[in-house]
Amino acid sequence: MKLITGNAPHLRSKDTTSKIMTDVIIALIPALIGAWYFFGFYAFFLAILGALVGELFELFIMRYLRKDKNFVPNGSAAVTGILLAMNVSPATPWWIMIIGLIFALGIAKHAFGGLGMNIFNPALAGRAFLLVSFPVHMTTWYKPALSFSKWVDIQTTATPLAILKEKGFSHINVSYGDLFFGNRAGSIGETSVLLLLIGFIYLVVKGRIKLMIPLTYVGTVFLMSSIFYFANPERFGTPLFHILSGGLMLGALFMATDMVTSPMTPRGQAIFGVGCGVMTLLIRYFAGYPEGVSLSILLMNGFVPLIDRFTQPRIFGEVKS
Amino acid sequence: MKLATFKGGVHPPERKELTKDSPIQRAPIPEKVVVFMQQHAGAPAKPIVEAGQKVKTGQIIGEPGGFISAYVHSPVTGTVVEIKKLSNIIFGRAVDAVVIQREGEDDWELLPHGDFEKFSKDELLENIKKAGIVGLGGAMFPTHVKLNPPQDKKIDTLIINGAECEPYLTIDHRMMLEKNEEILVGIKIVKKILGVQNVYIGIEENKKDAIEFLKEKWKGQVIVVPLKTKYPQGAEKQLIYAVTQRKVPQGGLPMDVGVVVQNVSTMYAIKEAIIDGKPLIERGLTITGEAINKPGNWWVRIGTPISWIIENLGQGFKNGIENVKILMGGPMMGIPINNIDTPIVKGNNGITTLIPEELRGTFCIRCSYCVYVCPMGLQPYLLDLLGKKKRYDEAAQIGLLDCIECGSCTYICPAKVEHVKTIKLAKKVYRALRGGEK
Fold first, then answer.
1. ipTM
2. DSSP-derived pairing of the beta strands A2-3 and B323-328
3. CATH topology of domain B16-20+117-276
4. CB contact B274 to A (< 8 Å)
């Protein structure tokens, strides 16, 4: 018999990084099935492709470029792949998404040191890269098909946020119900608020979410858009419209809450959420793009080290100075 | 009713069912004992016996080596075989150990004893010192020092620690059920020494029988405070906060908020010393874990080798076990031994045998679970990072020295980061680099 030593504590929770990643993937499944229904099988296929290619590419990076013989896939690359697919238009050719994924994992994640070290959310960095590289593909949008059949006729259309930006609130042709259930043009995984919320509740129950972020993010958007609404309803639209449209829910529930790229303390998470909310609306209202969720989260990602520094928790028994 | 508790903490599997219903039995006395000269915080004791010398049970064999130090007594009647340097895993250095061969039954050498009312405060403290009593919860701080705070510290509250938040261990639980009268005498003695009126005992709610029992038995004398079952509920600062809502200031001690905390087993040892004149040469401990055949609670002489305990009291290891982790203490803060003949010391509240598991981790994924569970409000992930990068000064600025090493962060970590390991090392290096400064 051999005596094993080691360091306390000698009991460890059964929780692992892979389990967290698995939970995130499970939480995304309702929205992915929704994507199939709204935009056809191809949209669903892109997400699966993203997950598989992501894992394989990360395995390649770890084994052959970073020469880590002991690396075992942990599911984080699959999460990135699925989230990237959910953040692109259903009109995106599969090879374009793969290019984005290679940028996301190769540059945004592993060039920064890999899992846990990256400053920017890899999926959003990949999306930003694609947006500047393939602007046409990335901004062509489909009208939802509302059918699980494999091949469906598709029509291009504008997203509600683009209509708001170009024509004004009175030209919006979808109801709040459509926005909530997902019957509108948009990125693959962003359209159905309902399905995203179902996944989100799963993550909350499992304790996988830094809850302060979605609360402050959506709360800020609500408050700020209320003020602008009273200033000019036609130009700025209603608060509810801003919360339900675009990528806000996908961003606030799943992208801004990415563990690696968000602050560590509830206070820091609140600042982060408010920052994301303000930036999102500023871009939607005044910048060239109709939608600003992904750019605002990326911007706030860059502030996380600073936020962490200034929002250190109070130590037990700390004397007021 | 809302249970008293603190902010943070974790809920590891309790595994107390292995031993919580087994009464404390008296173990036979081994043929040979090995008694460390350091079984207490502070300076090691100096051996005052020689090889070949006859010793009685309870005879002093080591004298304090400083102000914060303690007497050490012979746990058996017999002959000193040798005095040798032996690696003491708890303090991480080699210290003198006295090896004694037992010869026949106990022939006691007792301290002055009798009704505690007839002793003065100073006599009581002196007898506690002479009895070699230290904190039996595990910290092993000399009790006579702890019970004699400087004049300017006004103590108004005594808290008895019956939380027993460490998984697996049940000795304090059994002590409360079986030795309540003796413990109460110990409490009365300490009350007299400290001159306090408020006495509380904090007990985790998973020991409902002990809570109800003591509420009844100690009615009007000790206030029983049921505590939420949460680790580290029995950590001194967390216990004080849960019971009194007072926060021990950073870098301070319980006496800074007028509190003294004592473990239930220490109270028993004080009663034994003052009333019966018996110095601290045996204690109750839990022998438990998945690797042995018969877990249970036992009265064991200090200096008994763990190998002997496992063989004779735990009835050996289960069949087919190849690797085993043997801990002095419970699984959260226990220290793994690297030599199976390591002897029991005063602070051993348990021997936990675990079947080790392979762990595969990743880098920190910044889930922030460690920040949420830290009972001291620290950022374990950052302390770990700074410690690994040898940036000790920065670590100290964010509370390196405030860490109580409870292990909640490392327990909860999904990436299997070993924060506590890094922090312990960083503390040592920082203190060494900073010399006498705080």
1. 0.92
2. parallel
3. Rossmann fold (3.40.50)
4. no
